[in-house]
């Protein structure tokens, strides 16, 4: 098990803010996989793709899971939020849970 962080978008590719219901549906789907998650305050990401600069508000979500489950979460996130790519990374592999 590792602590992972995944970034989910606040806005669609058309610039529309996702509704709370849409985001809550994603969270419920993730809870079926991980049994828990932690939502952090939104952050702003910047990147360049094909010479176009993008600035996006994202919500960091932390989950405790293994590699197999983070792959499921990434796929769910790509599908649910209609994304071309999703970033997830290990925060820690030294987990204490009592």
List keywords for this structure.
single chain; 98 residues; alpha+beta; 5-stranded antiparallel sheet; 5 strands; globular
Note down, in words, how this protein is organized.
There is one protein chain. Strands 1, 2, 3, 4 and 5 form a five-stranded antiparallel β-sheet that branches. It is globular and about 45 Å long. The chain is α+β, with helices and mostly antiparallel strands and 98 residues long. Helix 1 packs antiparallel against helix 2 (67-80). It has helices at 20-34, 67-80; strands at residues 2-9, 38-39, 43-49, 52-65, 88-92. 10% of the residues are buried. The chain has two helices and five strands.
Helix content: 25-40%
Poorly predicted runs are none
Q: Sum up the overall morphology in one term.
A: globular
Provide the β-strand percentage band. Answer: 35-45%
Counting H and I runs of at least 4 residues, what is the number of helices?
2
Calculate the mean pLDDT score and round it: 94
Please give the largest β-sheet: 5 strands, antiparallel
Itemize the secondary structure elements and their pairings.
Elements lengths: L1 E8 L10 H15 L3 E2 L3 E7 L2 E14 L1 H14 L7 E5 L6
Antiparallel strand pairs: 1-4, 1-5, 2-4, 3-4
Helix pairs in contact: 1-2
Care to give the gist of this entry?
Helices cover 30% and strands 37% of the residues.
